[in-house]
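Q: What does the assembled structure look like for these inputs?
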Amino acid sequence: MSEVARGPRPGRNDLCWCGSGQKYKKCHLGSDEAGQTRPAPRPRRPALEPGRVTPARAVPLQIPRPDYALTGFPRGQGRDVKTPEEQARLRRACQAAARVLRIGGEAVRVGITTDDLDGICHDEIIRLGGYPSPLNYRGFPKSICTSVNEVICHGIPDSRPLADGDIVNLDITIWLDGMHGDCSATYLVGEVDEAGKRLVRVARECLERGISAVKPGRAIMEIGRAIEPHAAASGFGVVRSYCGHGIGDTFHTALQVPHHVDPRARRLMEPGMTFTIEPMITEGRWDDAIWDDGWTAVTTDGLRSAQFEHTVLVTQDGADILTLE
Ligand code: MF3
Ligand code: CO
Ligand code: CO
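A:
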């Protein structure tokens, strides 16, 4: 996810962004200002606590590394439209990411720690000859991101065992053939309540709707226009601080893909563009806070957040989902 500042809203008397046909002041103005789409229910589970983080996992010397692997700082901005040769390499990286995500997801069960999941995914990434993109990216300490319950994104794998009723997002990025492939999914741990299952289902639908909105010649903001009303119709929020992003030889290019309605996202989609769509959908408020570790983004009301992510290629008439096996 790349971070953005909050966007301008419609004027009080303009039509609401949600497509209701009502004036903004009658519709979502109040909830936008409150950072939520409805009065939030109280969280029923105790707040998540950070566990112990084990040392960074080793990457064998023969595995090629991205520029930031040693310093933590990525160089270069990256271009958003890829040549056919670049597209072919990106597709391979994305297929590998999808495979690692499936293997990580199959390992999710009550009692496994997120650190164990990090180890399983790390080992598969190495076996495929890739580098785990998060490792030392801007100083991130582990090989994947694991985001449990109220964690929106960028959760650091740690010693906490997954508990019955949790939801957990695994976000996998692999650098292979000089390209980053990025995808994520949210998994149910044991028996999850109906509200949690609905949240996860709507988050998946939001990704699908966002992908369906991809067409060359359309503005990037149409993706958020397809996502936010669907979340709002279920009373859910759409996180604004983190966006989808252009991707390729650079993990996060300057291109941002907001998942809410953001009129600033005027750039037009073009064939050959590659970016991620990765909506984070919240049960209550959509605003976020960061833990003292500098990474873990959580909801401010402690309610849950769910996310799904694909890397897509803009084609002549729509989107090609690259992060499929
Ligand atoms: N995979 C995340 C994304 O979807 C980014 C993780 S960056 C890290 O953009 F440093 F936290 F790993
Ligand atoms: Co991403
Ligand atoms: Co990701």
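The first strand starts at residue 2 and ends at 3.
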